[in-house]
Amino acid sequence: MIRFPFAALGASLLLLQACAFAPGMHMQKKSLIDRDAADNSMVEIVQITPKVIAQEQAVNTRMHIPQVLLDYQPENYRIGANDALFITVWDHPELTVPGGPQQPAEANSRVVRSDGTLYYPFLGNVQVEGLELEQLRQLVADRLARVIEQPQVDVNVIGFNSQKIVVSGAFNTRGYLPITAEPLTLVQAVGMAGIDKARADLSNLTLVRDGVTYTLDYDRLTDRPSNIGEIYLRSGDKLHLALNDSRKIFVMGEVRTPRPLPYSTSRMTLSEVLATVGGPLQETASGREVYVIRGVEDLETQKATVFQLNASSPTAFILADQFEMQPQDVVFVGPAEITRWNRFISQLFPSANIFRTTLTIDEDLRDRSAN
């Protein structure tokens, strides 16, 4: 007679599994990081404290504007090819508005040729490229004095077409912006082009001048007192505002809507990230297990950093609101102990079916042995 204790074996296995996860059992609670201690050689675990936040902010708030950009001071506007000039000779409408006063100013303007010359009555072809407006005014007045007694002359540019800067990237208006007689600052140029807030990486504005690229954190430099307003642009400069397509923060774990978030500024806090995804799930999340995982380029030579926040403490809200994120950070909210138990129970049903099957087999064997 063969009797194999299938039922006893199945019950024992289920009991052992249940004891491993049951609430109230005297077991040492460990965080996800503790349970994965075998892999901790690749990471450095850092508790989020006021001291850590102060150290991080000291690095993040470094704002530097290259001195060479601040040293440049714009000169008076110099006339260039394709500029449209309006030359006024008082009391001489035949020179001022040869097309007639009914015509718009543009129709009576004088356009500088591509070779830098301009034709004007009684003066002939005059080389005007490179001249300041006052210099051209004086030149016209001196030449007209040969035929007009004490001519009163004024010169204005009504079409600034020779000096431009290039704007590209996450701007609403891309292409060219003119340099006019009024000096143009970098901040003014950004305002004229308009920022595409949905796609812009405000921490990565580049200015290319004479083949040299200067990178500026536009977000921080405009959010706090700085001398960014003293940067003047000159013809040929190129402004590029980077896109945020490749800059994201990934939110995973026990949160309401796990998803990647675009990182468009240089300051996004942990509390803002959690609030954007609906916050940790009160029913399933562990307040002790809020992690910010920050990778490195080469794991063979550097350790990744895992910042841990104990969100069950009231001071955690202050710390989370001060902890600044970086692009490509991963925020992970771990499950609570009861959540692990509930998930075990949900996985137990297949085992329970096996248990019932073992009972049936054991009963059949008993019946057969009795017969």
Automatic annotation (TrEMBL):
Domain of life: Bacteria
Organism: Halopseudomonas xinjiangensis
Segments crossing the lipid bilayer: none
Location(s), subcellular: Cell outer membrane
One cellular component (GO) term of this entry: cell outer membrane
UniProt membrane topology term: Multi-pass membrane protein
Pfam families: Poly_export, SLBB_2, Wza_C
UniProt domain Polysaccharide export protein N-terminal: residue ranges: 73-157
PROSITE patterns: PROKAR_LIPOPROTEIN
Outer-membrane lipoprotein Wza C-terminal domain span: 338-357
InterPro entries: Poly_export (IPR049712), Poly_export_N (IPR003715), SLBB_dom (IPR054765), Wza_C (IPR040716)
Domain SLBB per the UniProt entry, residue ranges: 163-240, 248-333
Single GO biological process annotation from the record: monoatomic ion transport
GO molecular function per UniProt: polysaccharide transmembrane transporter activity; porin activity
Signal peptide positions (record): 1-22
Residue ranges the record marks as coiled coil: none
Name by which UniProt lists this protein: Polysaccharide export outer membrane protein
This protein's UniProt keywords: Cell outer membrane, Ion transport, Lipoprotein, Membrane, Palmitate, Polysaccharide transport, Porin, Signal, Sugar transport, Transmembrane, Transmembrane beta strand, Transport
Family classification: Belongs to the BexD/CtrA/VexA family.
